Structures are given as structure tokens and as C-alpha cells.
Amino acid sequence: MYSVHQQYLDMAAGFHVIELRDEKGNRHLVQLAVGHDACPACGAVHPKDNLESLDPVAAVSQISQALNTSQQQMHAYAAKHGLAVK
Amino acid sequence: MALKVNLAQINGAARGNSDLRETLTGIHLALQSLYAQTGAAPLNKIDAAPAAFTAPPAPSQLAVTGANGSFSVSITTPQKAPAAGAAAPRNATNAPIYQEISSSPVANFTSGVTTYPVSTNTTFILPNPGVTLYWRLRSSYNQQNWTSYRALPGAVSSGLLSSAAAASNISLNQSNYATVDSVAAGATATVRVYGSGGVGTSWTSILGNGSKVIASGTILNVPYASNGFVVWDGQAYQLKPQLAQTFPDNWVPVGKVSVIANASGLVLPVIDAVVTGGAIVAYQIINAGNGLTTAPALTITDSSGSGATATAVVSAGSVTQVTPGSAGSGYSTSPTVTASGGVSGGAAGGGGATGNNGGRLYANV
After folding, report:
1. Site from A6, A7, A15 to mutate, B interface, most B CB atoms within 10 angstroms
2. Residues linked to residue B211 through DSSP beta bridges, in sequence order
């Protein structure tokens, strides 16, 4: 099951980075774009104008659910056929 | 010439040392007896004309630094003038000194020793990226009589070859096995990076003879109608509108993605016409739409009227204004305004997004 491992705001890239990990150490990054490159010369990142409407918790929940559903289907397949999961 | 020694010479050589005289005399008599019994000739002197011995020079100083995948070797030879108080002899004649450099991955030089060609040069640039080596030096005037090895106390790393230091158009032979695509997610798109196992699976980047497994990722809140280059910066993905010709060495180019609206992301506007006297004099925006990247075309149809035209104005993905053109004539009270198009790079309802993998990286192009 994937869960939040760490999260931080990358000011240089303009992303809210949320790292999900499962019990085997597999990683999946959820990156919420909260800024964009406004200056092509210096790469300065400016905030997007829809930050108020962004819901990172909902995004993580949705993606985690999709990942876990996929993983559960794979595990079910492995269990059905007696396969070891690495 | 034959070795001829008599007792008088032994006495002279011993110079009053009785023990030495008796020892040499004993050897002499034993040899005489051996000669008498065997009839063999006395020994001949081999070093009848010995070559002059050329002492090795004073030690040279070795300095090695590493950067950008190369070792920079600098040798400082002894100066012509003697140093004050220095016991070691100096290179008084300023004769050329042959230098032999060697390196090894181990401090005691017991294995993996590489000996570089002997030269009188004092500076060398030795490309050898990504290794850490110990270094030593010995010197000679004639390449026969050498100084003892003088090793640097610590190992030196050459560092990695940066793209800035690489020759132009050098092929780094990079292969990526990432899929980069995008899907609609309401008002914005979601860019996905994943491996061959499908969404959520990691992927592998191969560079030269090395490879690394990189986590999958989902980038949210990406505007429609945007082109982006996805790179892995070692910690996370970066989505750049364009990539500079050179970028940090730890970045891994992942792929390019062109985000266009698809059927689920594009909402065409709903517009009603206001009819007065059979002519369309104004338009009312019932639904401004969403995900529009260009102005949709407006087609006005009616059971009786004809000739009216209008133009939509789009801002931030929605229609903000409808500019009437010709008013037309003969319209009923409820003509139909149909919007079509509204996206660039793909028709409404067309495929969502495309992504591709570079597969080959050229530095300093």
C-alpha cells in the first residue's frame, strides 16, 4: 500500500513534491505544479494563479488509490497463480 | 687481464690490519693451491674499463589534481641553483631529467599499476574519468639510474566528465525506457512518467555501461496546450517549457510531452442567440466552456433565418465574449449556436496527448 513518505516544496522547480512509497520501497512521485517558469532568462519561478483551488490531499488520495488498486490486482493475480512477489 | 696479486700487494692493502692481512693471505694461498691442482687460469677482471656511474638527479616534486574526468600532472624539477642548507644535490647542469609517472588504485602499488611513457615533459593531462588513483614519480638523467619512487600521500579522484568538458557532439549513448504522456484532469492536465510495467511502475535510464532505476511520477496541474520537456534532477521531475543546450550533469532527460485537450478535458461553450426583428443582435454565454486553447468556431443554424456570423473570444480556457458579426435576417426566436474546435494540436475529442523519449543525448550540441 502506498502512503506518503515525504513531501516538500521545491522552490527552484515550482513543484509541491509528494513522495509515496509502498512497503517494498517502490516510489512514486506526485508533483503538483504550483509555479511556472516566468522568466526564460533566469528561470525564476512565479506562482500559478489557481493555488487556492489546488487540493494536494485530494490529489494524493486519488493517485494513491489508483496505485493501490493496481497493486492489489497484481497481488491477486500472483496469489491466484501461486507466484512469489518480489 | 689476468688477476695477479702477490703477498707484497696484500700487505700494502692491509695497511697494518693484521686480521685483514691474514685473511687475504689465506685466500691467496688457497687460490694458488687450487690453481696448482686444477691447472686453471686465474680469474680475469671483468670491469677492466668500468663505465662512469651517473647518479640520479635530486628528487622532483609531483603534484596531481583531478577534475572533469582528467588528471592534471605537474612536475617541478630541481632548480639550477642549490638551495640554502639543502643536503640533496641539485641539478647543477640543468640537464634534462627523464620522468616516469605511474599510478595504481592501491596505495602500495602492488596491483593495477599503470606506468606512463617516460618523458622530459613536466605537465601532463591524462583523461581517465571516474577513477581514484594513487600516484608516484621517479627521475633519471639517463633512464638507467633512477631515484627511488616518491608517492603522493593520498589518492586523487579524476571526477566525472561533465558535458561542458566533453567534446562537441560526443555521444553519451543514453537510452531511456520511460513513457511520458498526459491525460486530462478537469481544468488542467496530468503528465505521467512510468516504466514498461504501466502507470506507477519505475523505469530505467541507461547511460554508457551504467543504469539507474527511477521512480514513476505524476505531474499535476499542467496547462493544456503546453509543450514540456521532462527531466529527472536526481530527486524529482522537472517540467521545463524548453531545455537549455547544456544542463546539469545529474539531470536525466526523460522525454517531451505535448499536452492537448482531449474529450474529457474539453468542454465546449453553450451560447444562445438574442433575436430581434429576425436579426441576431447579441449572444448570451450560457456555459463558458473549459480547456479551450483557441477560439471555437461558431455556426448558427435556424429553421428559417440565415446570414448571421459571430466570433468567440477565449481567455484562460473559457469563452469570455462573443462578438457579433453580420446580424442576418429571417431568424426565428430560437436559432442554434454550435461551437466546434477549441483546441490547437488536436481536434475536439481527439487523442489526449503524446509523449516521446529522446533515447540519445548529445552534449554541447
Report:
1. A15
2. B206
Q: What is the pLDDT of residues B118-136, one digit of tens each?
A: 999 999 999 888 899 999 9
**pLDDT digits over A1-37, tens only?**
899 999 999 988 899 999 999 888 889 999 999 988 7
Instruction: Kindly report the length of chain A.
Output: 86
Pair B109, B181 in one domain: no
CATH number at residue B141: 2.60.40.10
User: How many residue pairs from chains A and B have C-beta atoms closer than 8 A?
Assistant: 64
ipTM: 0.84
Residues in chain B with CB shorter than 8 Å from the CB of A33 are 219-222, 239
Answer whether residue B41 is part of any domain: yes
Q: Which chain B residues are Cβ-neighbours of A66 within 8 angstroms?
A: 199-200
Instruction: Report pTM.
Output: 0.46
Domain extent for B297: 270-340
How many independent structural domains does chain B possess? 4
| Opening angle at CA B28, ends B23 and B33, nearest 5 | 125
Contacts of B291 in chain A (CB under 8 A): none
Cα three-residue angle A15-A50-B223, rounded to 5 degrees: 70
